[in-house]
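LOG
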Amino acid sequence: MVRTLLVRGLLLGLLAGLVAGVFAFTVGEPRIDDAIALENAAAAHEHGAAAEPESATHGHESGTHEHESGTGGKESGTHEHGEEVSRGTQKAGLFLATGLYGLAVGGVFALAFAGLRGRVGPRSDAALALAAAGTAFAAVIVVPFLKYPANPPAVGDPETINTRTLLYLAMIGVGLLSTAIAVTTARSVRGGPWARWPAAVLAFVVPVVVASLLLPGVDEVPDGFPATLLWQFRITSLGTQLVFWASFGTLFGWFCDRAARAPAPA
C-alpha cells in the first residue's frame, strides 16, 4: 500500500507542479520582468553617474575604469558582462523547477500520508488527503511567508542570502512543530469539538506568534521600489503555492476516493 501511495504522490505531485508552473508563468513572470527592468535601469543609472566624473579627469583610462567600478557590487558586474542565463531559458526552466518540486513534495506527502492514515485525522482517505494538504500549506508555506515574504530578484542583498535562507527554514520548522503540538492538543482535549478545535488553533498560533516576535526581521527593500509591484509579486508567489497545494490535495483526495470505491479483485 505504501508503494502505491508513493507512486500516486510522485505522479500527482508532478502534475500539480506543472499546473502551478502554468500559473507562475502566466501571472508571476510578468512581475519578474518588471522587477528586472527596474534593476537594469537602476544599474545603468549608477554606471552613468559613476562614469561622468572619472571620464572628466581620467578620460584616457576609460578602458580600465569599467572594471574598477564593477567591484562596487556583484550585481553591477553581472549586467556589464551580460546575463549568464537568458530570460527565455529561465522561463522554460520554470516548468522543470515546478515539476521537480512537485515530484519531491508529492513523494514526501505520500509517505507522511501513509504514516497518518488510520492514526489521526478523518477516517476517509479523501478527507484526510485534503486536510493534510491544507495543513501542509498553512505550516510550510503560509507561516514562513508571513514572517519572510518573497521578494523580486531586484530586492535583497546577495551577501545575506545564507542568513535569510536559514531564517526561512527556521520558520518552516516552527510551522511543522506548531502543527504537531496542535494535533497532540486536539487528541488530548476532552469535551467535544467546541473545546477541541479552539484549543488546537491556540496551540498552533501561540508558538508561531512567539517565534515571529523572537526571530529577527529582514527588510532589504530599497527606497523607491514600487510598493504595488512588490505586493503583486508576493501575492503571485503565494498564489503559485496555493495553486499547487489545492491541485495536489484535490487530485490526491480524488484518487483516494476512487480507489476506495473500486471493487475488490475477485
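LOG (cont.) second protein
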Amino acid sequence: MDLKFILESLLFASPKPLSVSELREVLAKAAEGTEDPLVLSFRKAKAGAVEAALEELARDHETAARSYRLVCVAGSWQFVSLPDFSPWLRAFVGVKNRPPRLSQAALETLAIIAYRQPATRAEIEQIRGVAVDGVMQTLLERELIAAAGRAEVVGRPVQYITTQAFLEYFGLPNLNALPAAEELRRIPVERPESLATAEPSATPPEQLSLDEAERAPQPAPSVPESPSAPAS
C-alpha cells in the first residue's frame, strides 16, 4: 500500500486541515500496540516522504479532473471544492458570513509587511507615503499581522510580521508562495540609527529572506503604541 493512499484516507476523514507533523503523529500512533509489518513500516515516515506523497496525491487529483482538489494552505493539507460548483454548494450548506473585504490601503500595507517583514510602522509609512495607524489597527484586529518584538534602533519601534491567518486568508501554503515582487523588496527606507549599546553582532539584518521571516516567532499579543498621526 502506498503512503499517499494512507494519507488520502486520513485527510478524507479529518474534519480539519492536517499538517505534515500531525500526519506523521498519526502514522506513529497507528503503529503503537500492533505487529502488523505494513503499519510498522510507516511508523517513522520522514517529513520529506510525507510531503512528497502529498504532492503526488495532489497531482493525481488534479489530473483526474474531479470536482475537488487537495491543496496546502498555511502549512496544512485539505480537500477543497472547486469554485465552479459554488452555486450548488451554497444551496446545500448555505452562505456563511464572511468578513468584509480589505480596503486598498489595507492591501497595500499588508503587501509591504508581507514582502519586507519584519517591518516597522515608520518603514511602512516611508514606502506608502501616508500614515498607517488606522490601517495597522484594522490588520491587527483581524489578526493578519502581529507584533514581533522591537527593532534594535533608536526608539525601539515595534516590528510587524504576517500571521498564519494571513496565509489562510490568501490561500497560500507558505510565504515562499507569494508572487515575486523584487521591486517592492528593494525600495530603500531610511532606518534610525542603531542603539549605542547594541553590539554590532546584534544589529538586525537589512532585510530578512522569506524563509527567515517565516521561521521568526509570531507572538500573539501586540505591543501597544501611541498613535502618532492621523489614520490614512
